[in-house]
Design goal:
DNA binding; WH-like_DNA-bd_sf; DNA-binding transcription factor activity; transcription regulation
Amino acid sequence: MKKEIRELRGALLDLTGVLNRPQPDAALIDAAGVDLDRALFPLLARVARQGPLGIVELAELVGRDYTTVSRQIAKLESLELVARCPSPADGRVRAAIITDKGRVMTSALDAARQKIIEKLLADWEAEDVRVLARLLRKFADDALEWVGTL
């Protein structure tokens, strides 16, 4: 099993490398036909999926400094893509939440992402895609649970 774990680690590093490059985000934004600074994209996506989120929590999720995230959320707020509200978990914290305008944009981005992934998986057997989705979700859930214990 050591060989398989080494291969898994290598694949995860390769995927992380792809996801951390600026070109895929720029291509996705272009394919969606939206006008959005590439640096703001990960924040908008996280707020849409997991919001409302406080700045510190969001900074942790995207691996950025909270002061940078604070400035970027202010920019998203000025574009009316997110709004700020009291956090449900802690009323002293102002959390970012997606707006209707932001949801329209993330829907366009989701549709573009769907097309890109469908193209990547076009030559795969349907059962292989189902297995990948199930196992990747299981692995991600276990990783999230582990991170929660740190």
